[in-house]
Amino acid sequence: MSSPPPAKTQASAPAEAGLQDIIVTAQRRSENLQRAAVAISAVSGDTLASAGITRPTELTSVVPSLQVAPAAGPYALFYLRGVGNFNGNALSDSAVAFNFNGVYVGRPSSTTGFFYDLERVEVVKGPQGTLYGRNATGGAINVIPKRPDFDKASAEGNVEYGNYNALRLDAAVNVPLGENVALRAAGIYVRHDAYMKDGTDNQKDGGGRVSLRLRPTNTLSINLTADYFRQRGRGTGATPLGLNPDNRDGFFSPAGQAFVNGQVDQVLGRTMVAQTTPQFLNNSYWGVSSTIELNTPAGTITVIPAYREGKLDYLSYSPGFYIRQVEKDKQTSLEARIASDETHPLRYIAGLFYYDESNHVPGSYINQQASVNSNVADQRTKSMAVFGRLTYAIAPTFRVTAGARYTTEDKSLDGFTTAALRLCTRPSSFFPTYVAGCPTAQPIAVSTAIPSVVPTPNFNPFIDGTITTLAIGTYQGLKAKRASFDRITYRAAADWDITPRNLVYASYETGFKSGGFFQTVDRGVFRPERIGAWTLGSKNRFFDNRLQLNLEAFYWRYHDQQISHVVADSSGSQILATENVGQATFKGVEVEGRLLVTRSTQLTADAQYLDARYDSFVYSAPNNNGGRDNGTACATRGTPGATYVIDCSGRRPPNAPEWTINLGAAQTVRLANDGKIVGNVRAHYQSRTLTGLEFTQVEYQNAYWTADAQVTYTAPGSRYSIGLFVNNAFDKTVLALATPVPFTSYYAGALRPPRTFGVRAGVKF
């Protein structure tokens, strides 16, 4: 079997003969997207660049089934068809596996910095329990960079300037160093001013990547890659949702501070105090990996050793309270597999996977005015898996597949947590007739340096009427938390070529995400989650290869979903806990269409209908933010000032809109000088979407449309190009994430970008 070709878009016939084919590697072998019996969306690197995508949160605009929201600091929250979870610290994992250049990236805080000089991004939908395994209950995202080219030297550069003083510079150079050696280097710099009036939601990123490709023999190829990326600026901002989000005030603006100063702190016994300490990002990431491919008579052997590090140092106020985090993440991984060729009736893939990750958190500090938490943690994860998949062609056009994966994980957590709670002890009543009992109480001061101790406890009321309690949880040495998890996941599938251009497939696959820990004075352990998914699909080309119509129906059952949110532990402290919350059902239909109207006109459409329900969803909250008195149907049990138990069974999960639709049109006008003008229009629709976990009305983003457009002139020979672009042309304000602010009754809201526009130019040699 010959070595798999570099991932790229290939034409199966001249352009006038029909639509181009896209080659993908989602199933660990190179294959035509239209022949891959799996639900997958592929977005080319050119499309990503034209859409201005530099961060994972922006993928939502080009893949309807994918929702990615910004969270505190560098964190991104991934949901595929409603399956996902809130990942807010180093102890929580995503339910959607993120892979760069074939390497699994474990931390949701480390998924930025890759979106330049790309071949494509593949989004595989549904659990990938056999070929991907770890933390792929919702699916997988594969970011695939361009490989060095042996054939010719080339260089390209692009510059983009727009409103908000936005500047993007990216460049790449490819240099053959011999017949069988090539080097490719690429880099990016991105900046823009704040989208929020308070100076937050800005961007200042930069990074680079170097790849060396060798072909020592006709049967052996080696690709070495090293990358580096850094984040600066203020990071993700948020605004009080009691203000008009269209104004994008932010918490540090005069309007935001005035709003906060008028809100009641239910525990401290006075009004809130607006914070003024500015937030910041000072994060960096780097990694090295190698992809080694050896062709043998038994099949292609692929070995991918990799090492990655992330260093986080940030202060964020996006959830409505301060989070100060210092963290160092290290991961070592190795995947080895063998894949047979496609010429025999029996085909196979078999492999081993090893993953070793350490998360060192010398300081994590959360300040909520009446409560502070100071944490030190060292978490270690060791994961090993063996997997295999067999496909047998019963007939040349009909195949059956069976696969399985055994995963075992060992996790440990050493560290301690200290939490202080400042309470007003004077008589007072709470909602809805709250009267401040301690109007002169002093909030616990914010510290930009992570404190090693928290305020001294004092059970004799101060002159302001408050007491300060202290709780300490230690899990070190013999008391360290330890847990092991293992699971067999499997796949059964069949696919049938009705004609050479019409494929029907069906599958059932399971997924598994291991349990883990969270920091609290209590036990702080959560169970694994699992999912089972039925899929029935069809991929088709009609009318002389000019119409592509792909359809898929799916039915998923999700058990023990892990939800991370703010709760009160037994000490009364507000913590970010992860809980298992019963089960949910996701079912729906997705239709993807492409139509080549003429040689110069192409239309695209992608629509997904999703019926999603929590069959059982019961959780706890430190106040009644999820109760009926806030306009939801969730049943609550509890008393004012205490922890509430909230039952939202039967509700639609967050980030699971009923309808998502992407529409697109591209028109090419060829000029007499052999140059061309290309115009592109994209539109994205999304029905009403829940952006938080409390099911309050303020957490819902109403249905909306956004539209992007660009027009580009390309000179003869495609050497030069210049164009104009606009994204979110109608300046729609879209809520991406809503978070309840503890001890009070208002919410913080993170927003997607406003209207951006500008000019971009490129050159190729």
From TrEMBL:
Main site of residence? membrane
Q: How does it sit in the membrane?
A: Multi-pass membrane protein
Q: Report keywords, A-Z.
A: Cell outer membrane, Ion transport, Iron, Iron transport, Membrane, Receptor, TonB box, Transmembrane, Transmembrane beta strand, Transport
Per the database record, which ranges form the TonB-dependent receptor-like beta-barrel domain? Answer: 222-728
Pfam families found in the cross-reference section = Plug, TonB_dep_Rec_b-barrel
Query: What SUPFAM superfamilies would the database entry show?
Result: Porins
Say yes or no: keyword Chloroplast present. Answer: no
Output the InterPro entries linked to this UniProt entry.
Answer: Beta-barrel_TonB, Beta-barrel_TonB_sf, Plug_dom, TonB-dep_rcpt-like
Tell me the superkingdom of the source.
Bacteria
Q: Outline the extent of the TonB-dependent receptor plug domain.
A: 34-140
Its localization reads: Cell outer membrane
Q: Which family does it belong to?
A: Belongs to the TonB-dependent receptor family.
**Entry protein name:** TonB-dependent receptor
Source organism of this protein record:
Sphingomonas glacialis
> What gene name is given for the protein in this entry?
fyuA
